[in-house]
Amino acid sequence: MKIKSARLIAILSAITLGVVTAGAQTPVTPVAPPEPAGPAAQGGVTPVQPPAPAKPAAEPVPTYSPEDQAEARVALAERFCDMAMSLAKATRYSSAGLRQSAILLEAAIVMNPIEPRYLRYLGFWREQLGETDRAIAVWSQYRSLLPDDRVVQTKLIDLYLSKQQSNDAKLKYLRELLTKESINDDVKAHVAARAVPLLDQRSRAEALAMLAKAREYYPLPEVTLMEWQMLPRDATPVQRFTAMLNVLRANPTNTEAIGGVANMLAENGLSERALTWYNALVEVNAANQTEPSEAYSINYIAERYRAGETTFANDQLDKILQKYPDDEQVWFLRLTTQRSDESIQMLRQAQQIFNKRLSDDCDAIMKLPLPSGVKPAPVIHIKTNPPTATPPSEQVQAAITRARQLGDPRVTDKLVETLGNLIWFELYYDHKADLSVPSLIALKELRPINNFLVRRLDGWYDFVSGNETAARAIFTAEQAKDPLSALGLFAMEDAKGHTAQANAIGASILSDPHIGVMAAILFQATKGRGIKPANPPPNAEALRKELDQFPKDLLDVVHVPGKFYSIRAEPVKVGHRLGEAMLAVVTIQNESKEDICIGEQGLIKPVLCFDGWIRGINAAAYPAVAFDRILGRSILRPTESVSEIVRIDNAALSEALHARPAVLLLLNASVITNARPEQGVTKTYAGGYARVFGKMFTRNPAPLAMDAARRKLFADLGNGSPESKILDLELLAAYYNQYIQPQATDNEMTFAQQFLNFIDKSRSDPAPGVKLWSSYTYAVLTTGNEERRALSDMLESTSWESRLLALYASQNLPVDTIRQIATKATTDKDPLVKAYATGLLELLKDVTTRPTTLPSGAVFPGATTRPAAPATTRSSSRSGAE
After folding, report:
1. What angle do helix axes 483-495 and 468-478 make, rounded to 10 degrees?
2. pLDDT per residue over 697-717, tens digit each?
3. What is the C-alpha separation between 780 and 838, in angstroms, rounded?
4. How many other CB atoms are there within 10 angstroms of residue 495's CB atom?
């Protein structure tokens, strides 16, 4: 891609020209030495001589302008970036591999210091490596190119903050930033948010005051999440509800906040609205290909059941039980939806589940180690009252004894919960009071007689046993604080035909809404009677008003994210020669009336993913072929947009483009937000979607099998611009790789040798950039002595770029040879070459400790650049002596 003169001038002014960057030397025409004096000069007679044949004029040596040289450096910088990305991927983004790749990116930046993409990649790698000072330097250079990038500004703030040694120093730094008028409000919101946890270590009041200041600047996702998490324990339901809605304004796909809103609506009697939010929760989880938590699933199904959708509830519960057959809460809900119509088989199956859970919990308790110095106590056998009652089993009694010795309330609580569930099943669903006696006796060993759970179950035991007087006394005393005790009183009045009394109790029960299994139980027992709550829930109206202020269509982002933000992607240019970078401009624009947050906690995640595919006869798909990050803005206000220039012809797609140089290839691509590559398919998280590029790229054909095409290419190699020559060399290398395959014809093998000769000849090109790339290309295409001689010439060059490329090109040599080359280069005078050599030794150590990961014939799988032949071909062509 041609770049404008202004950009070339910027590059030229930003770098110091070395061997590769130097302008071409003025050609000097050699002067022939004088002919020796003949007889005429000595006074003799001069014989008549035939005229000398005319000498052909010498081919003029081309000269190149500084702009030509700068274009070559831009092209070489792109190739160094290619190498960096390939090496990082080939080494599985290990620390050693990233350090090597970072050096190659630094080389690309030296060659083209005004390309933001290189700095973008390098900045993230330096952060990943934990190299704070280097990351600061990179991001500072990036901001010198794009000073209005607020995302990078916050990165620099965080990096500088991490260097402060104490909390006081950190707070001083952050407070100073808040006084600067030049800093944008959304960046100040981030700064204030970073101060909150530091202040919270000394004063919750100071932390909350700073959090309020952060909200004043801007309610970033991180700010709204902190507001929710830092609510005091005595916060009102309305305060909690408002905090969750604020989280969802910043990110309407936050599942915890969606579920929390749904629960609060259900708890406050707003069932229809609650169901809308539960449905939204299910949709977001489906978009994320995850499942809601068990609690949310139960609450959702219970709400659908209360809405009259019994068939749906039963179907969903049966599916859950197939996956989790021993889940007690799901069994309670399943038994509730068919209460009074349960099959004997279902009851016996449930009974087995509840008894098995008790047995499993007892076994688990017995396996827990006792505290140091405590010896196992003999099992305390529980005496029953009356003595004729069936005592708990030996297993349960042993578990109670061990739980007492352990002294851990969590162990006791778990055993109490399991016993309570078994007793409730036996009394409420199975109506078997006698079966509940052993468990009820065991429960009273763990909880006092006045415990609300013991009182509730005692009341239901008396009710099922026919002891109505005792049951009524307990239910009456407990009904105000325990809905199941109130339900017991309701059932007693209903059984006696006291409709008015039962309805009054039912109205009181419905005035205090619940969620989940409790809500389903209370609904099932009172449904069909026309009972209405005696009083509306106290917070219902306030919650309704808060909800009315929430943007009603914001949850639709799961269904139609394109309604909220648009994605546009266009190639920088359409037609490309082989080897030219395929660049595209990607723009994300806010199309809604609400602000949109970009970031890990925002609606749009910062990573963009690109799928590519080749159209036509040679059609092939390349999912997740490239990735990049959105920088610039973390907040898009209505109509605002942010753009990035990205490259998509990476990895396998690049290999495919180089494998077929003779044909026209049509390449299309799509950009995906909130992407998640899985098993060859790119999927999206909630809020993300894919947009196909507005135009296709074309990779123009170069059919070198035709004489005219070859002559034109060879002429260009002699007289073309340095940038064009580099592309010519890449084309020759692609054909060479194609023509040395085992199935190649004799003519193709002849052409391959001819192309290699031209590459070899270009090693003497007067343009330093061409000379550099032809030397590298020749080294990676040849094998044996030719390869080693080429690498030796590059290593002895005065050009640091040449020596660095030689180290990279040595990767297909035997490990011992690479180690020798790298060891010698650790004393190189150039810091990049020296660092790469040192890192190469580290990488070799890392690679050779994991030999099973290496294919034969390549130390770094897939790390060679595009001109290189496939590793399998190269290794097969080596001589046995190697």
Report:
1. 140
2. 999 999 998 889 999 999 999
3. 22
4. 11
